[in-house]
Design a protein that fits this description.
The complex is a heterotetramer.
Chain A: E1 3-11, H1 15-26, E2 31-34, H2 63-76, E3 80-82, E4 85-91, E5 95-100, E6 104-115, E7 119-121, E8 134-136, H3 137-146, E9 154-158, H4 162-173, E10 177-183, H5 192-200, E11 205-207, E12 209-215, E13 222-227, E14 240-243, E15 246-249, E16 253-255, H6 258-262, E17 267-270, E18 275-278, E19 291-293, H7 303-320, H8 326-343, H9 346-361, H10 363-366
Parallel strand pairs in A: 1-2, 1-6, 2-3, 6-19, 8-15, 9-10, 9-15, 10-11
Antiparallel strand pairs in A: 4-5, 5-6, 7-16, 12-13, 13-14, 17-18
Helix pairs in contact in A: 1-2, 1-7, 3-4, 4-5, 7-8
Chain B: E1 7-10, H1 14-25, E2 30-33, E3 49-50, H2 59-78, E4 89-93, H3 96-111, E5 116-120, H4 121-127, E6 137-141, E7 145-146, H5 149-162, E8 166-168, E9 173-178, E10 184-188, E11 193-196, E12 198-201, H6 207-212, E13 221-230, E14 240-243, H7 244-251, H8 261-266, E15 271-274, E16 280-283, H9 297-310, E17 318-329, E18 336-339, E19 346-350, H10 356-372
Parallel strand pairs in B: 1-2, 1-12, 2-8, 4-14, 12-19
Antiparallel strand pairs in B: 3-7, 4-6, 5-6, 9-10, 10-11, 13-16, 13-17, 14-15, 15-16, 18-19
Chain C: E1 11-13, E2 18-19, H1 20-28, H2 34-41, H3 54-65, H4 69-72, E3 84-85, H5 86-90
Antiparallel strand pairs in C: 1-2
Chain lengths: 367, 394, 100, 103
């Protein structure tokens, strides 16, 4: 197979991958950015809502606009980008098997690899969950915001976390009707600002509810919802049916860890961050000297934290190839650490910050 | 430590579970210990074959006949087909030299009772429409069969447990001591000890390290085999396929048939077999890399290159996975089965190289007869662990 | 997740169509990790190689046996991470297509 | 039609070159550059395949090329992930039955 050499290969051009590539290129390193999709940007181009947080986290700017800005930065730095390129495996710690356009294979020998492969949606199971019309909330979001196609007209949203309420609002914007949002927990999950928008649009929320069954022969026709008691067991007789043609499942994300673990990066279980993640140090280096990780792959958080982790990984990967003198590196490293810590504030943020701190502090043990 | 035991079987792959089942059926109280999960060793990283055609006439071929008969009886006893199938096998011949050597080999096999014949290109293509044009002829035998290793192991486990067999997983053996009362004491990682008059070393590629715990020598070397799995597709032709090239270079050291550099370096030969799940297992390599079970780009590419050479139409079929297993190889290509001299009650049943699935039932039956002191018609000297003389760990 | 015992016929592994009942039986037979359950039932051996069902299976095992999740995971992580056509795995990229 | 012709944030749908595809023998139109799954859903087709064991209908599920539930037979080749494969002029797309037909 054809072999080429690169200094730093970034796998995944979502918020983490894009920022890692930009940061590494700014430090002077040669960067190759890979993405299996036809367009870069990953989830950014699905996030048409406004981000919020501190100003330098581009609060008030929509995800897709951030994506456009980052792509421009990447072009200005003439970072080499291979789209429609799937990284199928990492062999002998640094050889990346890439299949381009699903037709050609090429091995890229990288001195450093930054894995930024994001996360995948969780499933919940109920009779009929495999019917056409039942899909991940992310799938529906991709359909409406990227492909400009409505997956259905009467939608049941399962899960009231940020993804559930944001995608519900975007479904409304796209012209669909959101019949209800069910949440198994007694309290709703998402940030108040998103929940309020959806409530104002007249969408009913059903806390302590879940889907008992989806009905339909070739496609979803209706969903039977059921009330859950205090220890999450269905209450007989509380079932009621809603006419829907689409059921979106928004019950959390799991880090997409196959590339990292397939190449031997040590796993650690971190429930607050979505399950098994590759162990890493504060500089986002995995248990493997030449492999860095950033973004949802090493802990499900938000696009903004993914961007900061991407920058840290890009900076440290470049520095490990002796780019940037010590002073410039540590000044930038401190600043990025500050940024990412600032993002992990508030009730949800605190739990994630503690989870990250325990991973980083256990880094020595796991090596 | 649980109730008293008669036999401790070290190793929970297909050989260990089969041995445990046969011993339990013969009334022995048995515990099977495995350091890993279910089928973590070679038994979970191999194809399904009960293969006759690759075997030189001799004890391996004879034992395969007997093993096939045992499987058929077990299928009735267990009322479980274990996905047994009899699709037959073809060894593909590419040139005149191979044909000459295979003609001789087929004659020998037939004299040994194997129902195998040579068929021409037209018949070969009828049985396998995906064949490349350059295949000039093939062998064909309806004897070659297959059974799903996972079903077999699950059946031995279920049936054995029903008769009282214990299975302890994820708890490796760290030491084996000889007690005053001539029992063996097997100590595991979590500190539990299992005591019994007999210990069976069925640890496959790891059998040497178990043997050294009692000062015995088992000259088994791990030989890595990489396998590439296709997506599930409808059946491609009737039979499973192998290439004659590799076999010929084994049979005739000086033959004019030559292997490519890649084939030599990776020990590449074609094995194209359909799994119980409807996927095709494509292999395989033969690499001496110690206990490293990772796959390599060279291995995966080599296997795909080789397969497309024989079956060009497979180019549009997707691969979903590559895996590797460690074949336990012995110096003379025969398993090690028997009691070690000077170590009463310490047996080894390992070293099946690529034939562990095929030979599991007959190995287990003979091992069980040995431990129980039952009469065995055939002589097992050829398989004895003591056949290697004062083998030293060179 | 509705009550487990009642939905034995519900699918858990979408690719290989393995039901909750088959998975629960395997767990009760002593197959108590995601890899064990995969080998005993084929759940996770399909086209997506367990991406859709491994997490659910881990949760079912954990609920059924009381084992913590990290004892039940990880699944096995083998390459390629996407199904690739055999022709794609082989065909070299020609000189001109890729740059330096 | 399920196309979002106008959108409060994304604005009007830009016109795109039309691509003709044949789906189970029926000629349909799609937009150049869009994914097969999007084109089919836009044309009101949600069942992409029927499963091997239970012959049950399946359509899009993860939408990002990972769960492989949306596979169909495209130009005679089964198991093509339609949510991450772009349409092309004259593409022949068939609902896949079981593990598909291999000529």
């Amino acid at each position: 197979m054809k072999r080429v050499q690169r200094e730093i290969v970034v796998i995944g051009s979502g918020p983490a991958g894009l920022c890692a590539a930009i940061e590494a290129a700014q430090a002077g390193a040669g960067v190759l950015l890979l993405d299996e999709n036809a367009k870069p940007g990953g989830q950014l181009f699905k996030q048409i809502h406004k981000f919020f947080g501190s100003a330098d986290h581009r609060a008030g700017v929509r995800g897709l606009d951030i994506g456009v800005q980052l792509l421009k930065q990447a072009e200005d730095l003439n970072i080499e980008v291979w789209l429609n390129s799937e990284a199928c495996g990492i062999f002998d710690q640094n050889s990346v098997w890439v299949v381009r356009d699903k037709q050609h294979s090429i091995t890229v020998e990288a001195q450093r690899i930054i894995i930024a492969t994001g996360a995948v949606e969780n499933s919940i199971n109920f009779p009929g969950w495999t019917l056409p019309g039942v899909m991940g909330a992310g799938a529906a979001q991709t359909m409406i915001n990227v492909n400009r196609v409505l997956p259905g007209h009467r939608v049941l949203m399962v899960g009231s976390g940020n993804v559930g309420v944001i995608v519900s609002y975007q479904l409304l914007q796209a012209g669909a009707q959101v019949v209800a949002i069910v949440e198994a927990a007694p309290t709703l999950g998402g940030y108040g600002v998103h929940t309020a928008k959806v409530r104002r649009a007249g969408v009913p929320f059903y806390a302590s509810h879940t889907v008992k069954e989806a009905r339909g022969t070739d496609h979803v026709k209706s969903a039977v919802l059921v009330n859950l008691d205090s220890n999450w067991q269905p209450i007989d007789g509380s079932e009621f049916e809603v006419e829907v043609d689409t059921i979106c499942i928004a019950t959390g994300l799991t880090p997409a860890v196959e590339l990292a673990f397939g190449s031997g990066c040590t796993p650690v279980n971190s429930p607050a961050l979505g399950g098994l993640v590759p162990v890493h140090d504060a500089g986002m280096k995995s248990s493997n000297e030449s492999i860095y990780v950033a973004g949802d792959v090493c802990g499900v958080e938000e696009a903004s934290t993914a961007m900061e982790e991407g920058r840290i990984a890009g900076l440290c990967a470049a520095h490990s190839l002796s780019y940037l003198d010590e002073a410039a590196f540590s000044r930038r490293f401190e600043q990025l650490q500050h940024n990412v810590n600032a993002l992990r504030s508030g009730m949800f943020g605190q739990r994630r910050r503690e989870a990250k701190e325990s991973i980083v502090s256990s880094y020595g043990v796991h090596r | 430590m649980g109730k008293a035991l008669d036999v401790v079987v070290v190793g929970g792959g297909i050989i260990g579970l089969a041995s445990g089942y046969f011993l339990t059926r013969n009334g022995k109280r048995v515990a099977v210990l495995d350091k890993g999960g279910f089928a973590d060793g070679a038994s979970g990283a191999c194809d399904d074959m009960i293969l006759f055609q690759s075997k030189k006439p001799g004890i391996n071929l004879e034992l395969t006949f007997e093993s096939l008969e045992l499987y058929k009886r077990l299928i009735v006893d267990f009322d479980d087909s274990m996905q047994f199938k009899n699709l037959g096998g073809m060894v593909l011949i590419e040139n005149g030299e191979e044909l000459a050597i295979m003609e001789q080999f087929v004659k020998e096999q037939r004299s040994y009772g194997l129902d195998v014949e040579l068929i021409d290109q037209k018949d070969a293509r009828k049985k396998q429409p995906f064949l490349s044009d350059h295949i000039i002829a093939s062998t064909y035998s309806m004897m070659d069969s297959q059974i799903d290793p996972f079903h077999v192991m699950r059946a031995f486990e279920k049936q054995g447990s029903a008769l009282g067999m214990q299975i302890i997983r994820r708890n490796g053996v760290i030491a084996i001591e000889r007690l005053g009362n001539a029992n063996w004491k097997v100590i595991t990682a979590d500190g539990t000890a299992y005591e019994a008059p007999a210990v069976v070393n069925a640890a496959g590629a790891w059998a040497p390290s178990i043997a050294t715990m009692v000062g015995a020598v088992v000259p088994i070397v791990p030989k890595r085999g990489q396998i590439v799995l296709s997506e599930r597709i409808p059946p491609i032709g009737e039979t499973n396929l192998w290439n004659a090239k590799y076999l010929v270079t084994k049979l005739h050291k000086g033959s004019a048939v030559t292997l490519s550099a890649e084939e030599v370096e990776l020990g590449l030969s074609l094995a194209f077999t359909r799994s119980a799940g409807g996927t095709y297992l494509m292999g395989s390599t033969r690499e001496y890399v110690g206990y490293d079970k990772s796959t390599t780009i060279a291995g995966i590419k080599g296997i795909i290159n080789l397969t497309l050479g024989y079956l060009p139409k497979m180019k549009d079929v997707g691969i979903v996975r590559a895996m590797a297993g460690l074949r336990p190889e012995t110096p003379d290509g025969k398993m090690i089965l028997g009691e070690h001299a000077g170590l009463d009650g310490f047996y080894t049943a390992a070293g099946h190289e690529g034939d562990g699935i095929a030979l599991a039932p007959i190995t287990a039956k003979l091992l069980s007869d040995l431990v129980c002191g039952n009469r065995i018609e055939r002589t097992l000297d050829e398989l004895s662990p003591n056949r290697f003389g004062e083998a030293t760990n060179e | 997740m509705s009550d487990e015992t009642e939905n034995r016929d519900m699918l858990i592994c979408r690719c290989e169509e393995v039901t909750l009942g088959e998975i629960l039986d395997a767990i009760d037979d002593g197959f108590v990790t995601v890899k064990d359950v995969k080998r005993a039932t084929r759940a996770g051996m399909g086209l997506c190689q367990g991406r859709s069902c491994s997490r659910t299976i881990a949760r079912i095992i954990s609920q059924r046996t009381g084992k913590p999740l990290d004892e039940v995971l990880p699944k096995s992580y083998r390459y390629p991470v996407r199904p690739e056509k055999m022709s794609a795995a082989l065909s070299e990229e020609s000189e001109d297509e890729s740059d330096s | 039609m399920n196309r979002i012709v106008d959108h409060p944030i994304l604005g009007p749908l830009a016109d795109a070159e039309v691509v003709h595809i044949i789906v189970d023998g029926v000629a349909l139109t799609a937009r150049k550059g869009e994914m097969i799954a999007a084109a089919l859903i836009a044309n009101g087709k949600n069942t992409f395949r029927r499963t091997v064991k239970r012959d049950e209908p399946r359509g899009i599920y993860c939408g990002i090329g990972r769960c492989t539930d949306c596979v169909m037979t495209v130009n005679g080749i089964p198991n093509v992930r339609t949510c991450v494969t772009e349409v092309a002029e004259g593409m022949v797309i068939e609902t896949q039955l079981g593990s598909g037909e291999w000529q």
